[in-house]
Amino acid sequence: MEELQKTWETEYLIRFPDCDPFNHLNNSRYLDYFINAREDHLLKFHHFNIYKLAHEKAVSWVVSKNQIVYLKPALLMETVIIQSTLIRMEESEIAVEMIMWNRDKTVLKAFLWTNFVHFNLKTQRREKHSVDLINAFQPYCVSLSASLQFEQRLEQLRK
Question: Is residue 2 part of a domain?
Answer without folding.
Answer: no
